[in-house]
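[Q] Does anyone have a clean structure-token version of this?
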Amino acid sequence: MRMPPHIDILAVGSLSDDLRHAFEHYRRLLSSVVHLSVRSVREVSLKGRSEAEVLREEGRRLLAAWPRTGVVVALDQDGQVLSSPAFAAAVQQWLEQGSLTFVIGGTLGLSDEVKARAQERLSLSALTLPHQLARLVLVEQIFRAVKI
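[A] Here you go.
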């Protein structure tokens, strides 16, 4: 019996209770076809720190949790924007190479070091999305991708 493909979400911070409920709904729907795991690193407070310091520290935390194998896709507002069918095709192609990890930054996005380390950069929308909402949109699009 073939194991379901593995998709990991590596993100800064945690979800609010309201968004967590919706996220878990899609996670349950995916559970029969994809093994979806979520790993979070602690968000860094802006209090008393510059934006550059926050990005650097959150980037360091993400890189410390970086997967050893597989394709890593950074969610970045300057990344490639794909239609849902194109995203589905990309997910399929990435999964053929092994495990797949999506990386989501915090309030300020991702450090340049994190973006440079990822094999791909993807934007979920031309609009700027809050990082918690981006996680929900991502899991919904993963669900849509495996159903297309």
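[Q] Thanks! Anything notable?
[A] The longest helix spans residues 131-147.
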